[in-house]
Amino acid sequence: MNASLLALPYFALVFIFYHQSNGFIPSCDNLYEYWKTLPVLILSILYYAVGSSFSNRQRTYASLGLLAGAIGDYMIARPNDGLILGAVCFAIGHIFYLFTFTHCIGNVCIPLLFITILISSVIFYATLTLLLIVHPIASAIMIIYSFLLSTCVVFSGSLYIHGGPSDHPRQFNNLLRFLGFVLFYLSDSTLIIHHVGIAVPVAEKLILSTYFIAQYLILCGSSLSLSSSSTSLSPPPSSSQVQRKCCK
Question: Where is it located (predicted)?
Fold first, then answer.
């Protein structure tokens, strides 16, 4: 199934969650984490179950990445150690996402790499420096997660900018994937900054709106890549077929 057909049910569930939570505002209501989990969970199930091919590994990896994200959504909404457990789930999801496109990468974009390292270093200094002393294990998990997400940003951006063995530079599907990871990076950076007590205006709306859009864009990029690769792998018409067309 084309990912564009999944936009309606997915964003409808996001809108329902927005309405139920009065603007993505966390509450003590037990339904909050369920409404938060539902959009990405349903998206992962639909993308896998309604797809035309169950044997395609890229489709499976993308679905598992979404599923891990849905579990992370649930974990991160829990009051006790939810952020750390959520980071573990999202890290697993990013590993699955990397499986969908790392084989297509040619050259790494060095300027993008340095920009990502610089931004990550600033965020690390502002948020995790003190936590590293007080909570070393939790901070180590967050650092590993940040590294995986930064890797996704750099690799997806490099694929979009430079292309790869089977991808031309600046392809639309790779742009969607890159934008998805950039929004994911923005969402998680805002989350950790807000979590350590630094005031962020409309933090909940910014964190979750960018997150939900990011998940969908990453899926769209993977889906379009899958469609284009299937088209490129289709066998050319035989000479007899060409002759019959010419006779007609």
Answer: Membrane
